Input
Amino acid sequence: LASKNKIGSGSAPVNIALSKYWGKRDATLNLPTNGSLSISLPGLGTKTQIERLESQNQQTDLVSLNGQRLDQDNAFAKRVSQFLNYFRETPQTFFKVDTENSVPTAAGLASSASGYAALVLALNDLFAWNLDNKSLSLLARLGSGSASRSLFNGFALWHQGQQADGLDSYAEAIDTTWPEFCVGLLEIDVKQKPVSSTQGMQNTVETCALYQAWPQQANQDMQTILQAIKDHDFATLGKTAEHNALTMHATMIATWPPIVYWQPESVEAMHKIWRLREQGVAVYFTMDAGPNLKLLFLETEKPAILQAFKQIKILEPFKS
Ligand code: PMV
Output
């Protein structure tokens, strides 16, 4: 028999921060110490379906990832169930959640961002809330900070906000298209990261003296990149994004115990990019909580990039 149970569905893209979120002022509400700005990658992301479980005997959520049912004590399933606690109509309401990721989970490619954005969209559909983007972004932020930015295509800006209740900390789309804008994914290693971003942020905030300089620098970088997007000034955008990522990684490295997401191949790729720049190729990189690089360049440099990095995956965020 076909189930009469309503199914809610949602899908959302991954996003890459050009100026990063690193550090929480409130770990429960995922309130950041600084604003951040990202570009979404349509075609890479998460599709989620959710339904209420009918059976009285079912006393847990059923979570599956890429077609595989997860154990209750699986870290991903636990985190999803914890997030769903915000939305249960009664303590006895349980959900079935099916998640399909087209990105490797926890490989520094921000699958949690697209994941919680897609889950919130699926909940919005299931409960017929008809929420606006601001409210959807606020809810997605509760699942994973960077998810607040994954409700949008193109560039998005997540406001730091000042309020203790977090109601002013949400993301908005930046209304600009830039058809020539390219992002290259250079996969170094897709294994699960050794330190989660939540844990990494906490350790950094608590033990890294350099971190004090971060929030101000990050907010300034965000404004510089916002203006560069409006001006289509690629050199300023690339330079600021790369410097921002390296500054974030500098605070991680100066944490105790040290957090070094880089692999030798990551550093090798950085040097290759710097050499290309010396040769006149306008390419910059950014990196998140993992060893992989994301290259930033304009369409005119595509041939040079493909020649230099044979296995790179190139995405054109404004062309799909
Ligand atoms: O949203 P989280 O908790 O996965 O943190 C994301 C942190 C970075 O990816 C390193 C930076 C960012 O702004 O996306």
Observations:
- The longest strand covers residues 36-52.
- The mean pLDDT is 94.
- DSSP finds eight helices and 13 strands in the chain.
- Residues 17, 20-22, 36, 110, 112-113, 144-146, 197-198, 288-289 surround PMV (CB under 6 Å).
